[in-house]
Write a structure and sequence with these properties.
There is one protein chain. The chain is 39% helix and 8% strand. It is built from 17 helices and 10 strands. Strand 2, helix 3 and strand 3 form a beta-alpha-beta unit.
Length: 485
């Protein structure tokens, strides 16, 4: 193995994690509101305390490069929860002292939400708050300029040159302490090494070359063609260059750009251009198995472990039609605005351009509108004044698929018919009516007809019986006696 390469890993040690030693304990906003600042600080102190055994483990196994988790201080960069870090200063100083004692390099990778290419003022303020928080952590540890913060270019927003111009303007608005630690990385969807190089040279912002991203979203020339120009900016700043490597899973479809973005468990082969470098450089392994990936690669280099992989990966060569299919596939993936940042746990970075791509996809592949379903005609119901207390008639049509008691409906129709026939015979003697067969029938034989007032229904009381006004007839002649005359 090239002795100039210093290998490292990201955020989590899988061996120590089994003993509950890790640095990414965090919480949701609801938990913060429920348990308060004291609980957030308690988690932060546990995270910081666990950094010490991780550094000791790394030193024991000859690993001197480590990415610190962005979840070290839960919700500390949230605008509604931001809190000072003074309470953690003793532990932060202790971590920095231990890292410098062993000559370890600590870096950070803020999440995909930190975007400087966006013109929205709110987005900039949120980004600045988060970047300032990351820079403060490294400053309080007392780390030198090699402790950098890596971010991606961000969104294109339909005009890449204009977006990069916005990046330059927003970069100059950041605090000096934040600018001094900020470096750029080429991503797999929007910004290539070639795209970022002019901005890097103009603002003296070093570029972290990601070889995996370069194969998925390549520049016009191979990555090694930019080595001299990229490393020149690092040298001018007096900082040791840093690069990222990862490999797609073994069984992934190598012809699919979307599928290749996923990081595999291990890294068995490094790019030849990296292995042939004749200068000191830090190589961050972005693999799911973390420190185990570093140890495995060492075993492969020493011949103790055999691998079927003989080459790093091949560049993507997609046609326009294939790119359209990739965008359709990208639309089906989980929304990044709801996904947890993969940067923080180093399982691959979620890029900032996904939202922009999704907007394009939605316009390009709009689902055809379905014809509105035909509504079934509403069934006639008896007027509220003629409802019977024995049968509950729903006011609204029953939902589709609901079971309906047909016997109750038939009984309801029979009662309506009896009511209509009773109303048609106003001249019958009081207390008598006719049946459906035309035969006289007593009112007692009919179901009771009630007038259910609104207030009575609400209170659940039975309504008073309906009283039909007597038909108007000629006033009866008063009988007179002869004596009265």
């Amino acid at each position: 193995m090239n002795p100039h390469l210093n290998l490292g890993y990201c955020c989590l040690n899988t061996v120590l994690r089994e003993d509950d030693v890790f640095c990414s304990r965090t919480m949701r906003l609801a938990t913060f509101n429920e348990k308060g600042l004291e609980y957030a600080q308690e988690l932060a102190l546990q995270n910081l305390q666990d950094m010490l055994p991780i550094i000791e483990w790394n030193e024991k196994h000859g690993i001197k490069l480590f990415r610190v988790s962005s979840d070290m201080f839960p919700l500390a960069s949230h605008p509604d929860c931001a809190y000072p870090l003074d309470f953690a200063q003793p532990l932060l100083s202790q971590i920095g002292d231990l890292a410098r004692k062993y000559g370890h390099r600590l870096t950070m990778h803020p999440s995909q939400h930190h975007v400087l290419t966006n013109k929205t003022e709110k987005t900039f303020q949120m980004t600045a708050l988060g970047l300032d928080h990351h820079a403060e952590i490294l400053d309080r540890m007392g780390m030198d300029s090699s402790a950098v913060m890596v971010i991606h270019g961000g969104g294109v927003y339909g005009n890449k040159p204009e977006a990069l111009k916005t990046f330059e303007e927003n970069f100059m608005r950041l605090k000096e302490s934040t600018r001094n630690r900020l470096v750029l990385e080429n991503d797999e969807m929007a910004y290539t090494i070639e795209d970022l190089l002019p901005t890097s040279q103009k603002l003296k912002i070093p570029i972290v070359i990601d070889y995996h991203h370069d194969l998925i979203c390549p520049s016009s020339k191979p990555a090694e063609a930019y080595h001299d120009e990229v490393f020149a900016v690092w040298d001018e700043r007096g900082i040791k260059p840093k690069v990222h490597v990862s490999q797609s899973p073994v069984d992934v479809d190598m012809s699919s750009k979307t599928a290749r973005r996923k990081h595999g468990d291990y890294i068995d082969v490094l790019p030849d251009s990296l292995l042939s470098l004749n200068r000191d450089i830090d190589v961050m392994f972005e693999a799911k198995m973390k420190e185990q990936a570093v140890l495995r690669y060492r075993g492969i280099m020493s011949g103790e472990i055999q691998t079927d992989r003989t080459t790093f990966e091949v560049p993507m060569t997609l046609t326009v039609e294939e790119m359209k299919e990739e965008k359709k596939l990208l639309k089906k993936t989980k929304s990044p605005s709801k996904a947890k940042s993969l940067c923080e746990e180093c399982e691959g970075e979620v890029i900032e351009t996904v939202k922009v791509e999704r907007k394009v996809i939605v316009k390009a592949k709009a689902a055809p509108k379905k014809a509105p379903a035909k509504k079934e005609p509403k069934k006639a119901t008896v007027a509220s004044a003629k409802k019977t207390p024995q049968i509950a008639t729903p006011k609204k049509k029953a939902p589709r698929g609901m079971w309906v008691d047909m016997s109750a409906l038939e009984e309801h129709k029979r009662i309506k018919k009896l009511i209509r026939e009773a109303v048609k015979e106003p001249t019958l003697p009081k207390g008598r009516t006719t049946s459906s067969a035309g035969q006289p029938q007593s009112a007692a034989d009919l179901p009771q007809i009630c007038v259910a007032s609104g207030s009575a229904r609400k209170r659940g009381r039975p309504a008073a019986a309906a009283k039909r006004p007597a038909p108007k007839t000629a006033p009866a002649k008063q009988a007179t006696s002869k004596k009265g005359k």
